[in-house]
Amino acid sequence: MTSGVSCLALPFQTQRVDLGPITQKTVNTYTSYKYDYNNVKDLAADFLLYDNSGIVGGTAKPGTAGDGNIAKLSFDGTNTYIGLKNNTYWLETPTDAVAQGEVNIPVGYRIVGARLVYANNVAQNIKKGDKIYITDGKGNYMNASLKFTATKVEWNFAADGKLSTTSDNSTVYLRHEESGILLWKTYSLKNTNKSDQASAFNTDGTSLFYGSGTDSHIISFDSNGNAVYDISQQNAIALNANVPVSDNSFTVKVYDKTGENVAHQVAVNRENPTGDIVLEELNNDAIKFQIEGLTGDQLAYVCLQVQLEALNPYIDKMDISCTQPSGEKKLKNQYLADDFTIGTNGKVDFAVPTNFGTNGLRFAFEGLHHKNADETYTNIGSEGKHSRYHFVKSDYYDLIGENLQAHRSDAADYDYTKKIEVKVAGTQAFKCNNSDIFKAGTKGDGTYYYVENRYSNTAYNTQGGTWQEMRVNNGDGYVKRYLVVCDETRYNIAPTTTPRHAFYAYYSTDLKLTTVNYVPELTYTKVYKDAVVPNTYDANYYVGVKVSLKDTDNKPIPEGEGYVYAKQIIEKIALDIEAKKENAPVDTKHILYFDASNINSLLFSDTDPTWGTLTDLKAKLGDNALLYMPEGVTANLKNVVTKSLSGDDFVSENDIELVDQQPFFAPYSIRLNAANEVVYKRKVTLNHNETKKWVSLMLPFTVAVDTKTGSYVQTKDNCAFTFYTMNTDNTFSNAQETGEYIYEADAHFSPFTGQFVTQPNKAYVVSIDQMEETNSDKVLFVVRQSGSTIEATPATLTQPLIQGETATGKIKGEATTLVNYGSYCGVKVPKTDGIFYFNKDKFISSLLLDERFQDVYVLPFRSYYACQNGANNVRYLNISLEPNTETSWIDNATETATASAGFMFSAETGKLTITATKDLRTNIRNINGQTIDTTSLKAGETRTVALPSGIYMVNGTKVVVR
Predict the structure, then answer these.
(1) What's CA 65's distance to the chain center, in Å?
(2) Please, are residues 265 and 290 in contact by the beta-carbon 8 Å criterion?
(3) What's the rounded Cα separation, in Å, for the pair 8 and 80?
(4) 3-state DSSP: the chain helix, strand, coil percent, rounded to 5?
(5) Mean pLDDT across the stretch 246-264?
(6) Whole-angstrom distance, CA of residue 294 vs CA of residue 269
């Protein structure tokens, strides 16, 4: 800067592409518009730092001389510092980027976090190789004992990142230390006198930290003056010890998100020459700060860092409502917004009963839903982030117009329900860019640039578009309806008046009204003949329900057509139960799914009980009931899923929550959107089950695990556990005899490794590594998995159990085989079967039950081991994670391979060659039961493994290698 200004442009890259000139070119006789990749650039935009004198015509104008209080720029090799005089300043996000050809491209951002680094001398920044002080910004400095005191202590920041100082004639190094496992690792700063124990630290020029990115730990200080990690607003600052301390003194004030109150105030002087201020939980167009107290030509130096988020108007679903001419009654259905269209392939055939009306009905769009809504959008289901979305032409938009600055308080706190409903639709698409001139077949010899247009009512009217009420009559054809959705910043504190911190998205649907009556027909399918629920055995069967339609003449309606409304279904189920219709359940709580996927829509009304709501319907069904909806149709409720475009499975734009100890059944697979999660809350089993460390668990969905350890970590509820399965061979050891019984033995388990996700519908034994049991609802731990897949339940009415692994081995010389079975309905097993059920962190034989108990009750989402042979005299099986070192198991090995084994082998000196006679997976173990080699072979394939001399087992066959 050659002279001071009142408005300074600070450029940054938007991560978008600037194509440059676009001209017609002919390649291989084909003429079309093309851009030259040599001209492609990153699209840049500018933050604007300014004071009031930098505002011209309502907009901050870069380069405006004004009072010249933005006086100097300095780059220290790491950060850019700006020298400022006394004044109030704003840093505002850009609303436009300037592309090649001087073309303005609309952009939109919100500031969600900010950091202001202050210094009274810009040369304070440090780098590796410097001598430094580490200060708390309050005149205290870190010493070799990792305490902040008034005594300056010089540290050497070596080129390799190691930090050291001298204390009592010895060198003290700074050490990063970790303890614990997985999520519950703790990180701390320590000192050491050993160079080889010192850790390498990094710097951004002002702070010191260990690690990088999200896995970094910043040196901070606590309230007692101890050096610690990662305390917000209390990061230590590193000073260059060789730079003279400046006498510049000033006060820096940083305002809160409203721009009205000072959130932080710091006196900067010789004793506190540098530091930082952090702002969090913002949703702003700008940040505001003030410099005061400078004298003469003194300057305050600041480095401004912000956390940006692009404005996001891209919604995922909305309601379409139909209201009677009188406005008395309203029906709704919810539809997905996919690829900027609403409904199934961009079409909605909205059907209503004949008694609802036939002429003059009015459509409206409402219930607009965004997965990133901020906390003011209550009852939407995904609030807690930053989006401030609304319909153009909603009540809110008509109030604000296109002038956020004139309605700052309204923009911050307006009733969200008046933002997500619109009663008019556009008559044509808004031309948001000029891509139409580049389409195939267009002729022209000029040079063009890609242009985007920001929506405004004026621009839309100029293009010929108007907004009209959606009045419809029965018999009208499809009418294209156009919608515009906007996202904007919540706190608009910049003093400018013309920039619009808003960004727009454009949607459409072909909408049609049909007035017709349909008669629902429900088909009930038994899925479980009984169930075990807490404290009882339920002998009543559980069912699924599928709806089909007939017209008033009792003729079937083709799939994909017609509607039902919620109250119809509720009443129809009640009548079927009363009439004892074929397979109808004893009550609605015995319904595990409702399948409406083969009709067109399922209507509801939030205000008129005549039609009912989907919430009413869902509340009637089983706790884990799933609602399967037609393609393009959804509802803002948990456990509601939508038929995919392919029709092969279902997708979920909602969370799915599974209630432990209650029956569950999924007739179709479900893919969850990446932003949604399936949640399972494991409850404590009553009746004296003292499980604290281990549980059996079967889930219908995939769970992401560590491929090396089989561990799952879940931070939201502070829990972690590891998945295990019982070893399939050489399973048992350490049998302890007591009288006529083998009192107990060890069953050997291995972690589920080598896969990124667990197998759905497979029972595991889970080691609880961390949990926080909540007393309110007896939740032991919580599984949450975003973007998971729920697989269709493989259980049947005649076989409700799902078989898992088979484990074999010997207990005191007796061959023993256990088979794992899991259940989603729970199961009552006669104790005489001699099963092993899970209790008190081990597997207990049902034969231990006294005469008061004739059966074992296993609750849903759990498993047990059935004994196929042997083990009838074993009472307890303990869980062992150690390798089985007992060798008696090898006595059961065969000496030669057979055709049924699926392979042949030859053993030579120091090696073993296996030839597969069918597709199989081979497992080679040594005499201690340790796995030496595992591989998959196709029929005819051969594998040679180098082995020391000894006895080995290949899939249960004994092999001797010389």
Answers:
(1) 48
(2) no
(3) 13
(4) 10, 50, 45
(5) 94
(6) 10
> Any idea which of 372-381, 524-533, 696-705 has the lowest mean pLDDT?
372-381
**pLDDT computed for residue 716 by the predictor:** 85
Lowest mean pLDDT among 623-637, 749-763, 776-790: 776-790
The yes-or-no verdict on residue 225 having pLDDT over 80 is yes
CA distances from residue 724 to 91, 695, 699, 760, 762 in whole angstroms, order as listed: 54, 10, 14, 14, 11
Residue in this structure with the two tokens 């209550």, named with its chain if needed: 378
The closest of 340, 271, 329 to 133, measured between CA atoms, is: 271
Q: In whole angstroms, what separates CA 631 from the centre of its chain?
A: 24
| Mean pLDDT computed over 726-735 | 90
Burial of 832 (0-12, 13-18, 19+ CB in 10 A): exposed
Query: By C-alpha distance, which of 764, 736, 761 is closest to 750?
Result: 764
Residue 10 pLDDT grade (very low, low, confident, very high; cuts 50, 70, 90): very high
Q: What pLDDT is attached to residue 897?
A: 47
- The residue ranking higher by pLDDT, 865 or 378, is 865
Alpha helices in 371-449 (DSSP H): 395-400, 408-413
Neighbours of 881 (CB within 10 A): 12
Judged against a pLDDT cut of 80, whether residue 244 lies above it is answered with no
Provide the 8-state DSSP code for 455.
-
pLDDT at 419: 95
Q: Is 30 in a helix, a strand, or coil?
A: strand
CA distance 711 to 707: 8
How far apart, in Å, are the Cα atoms of 318 and each of 411, 610, 642, 725, 850? 22, 22, 14, 44, 59
689-728 burial, b for 16+ CB within 10 Å, e for fewer? eebeebbbbbbbbbbbbbeeebbbbbeebebbbbbbbbbe
Residues in contact with 34: Cβ distance below 8 Å, sequence separation at least 6, in sequence order: 22, 23, 24, 25, 27
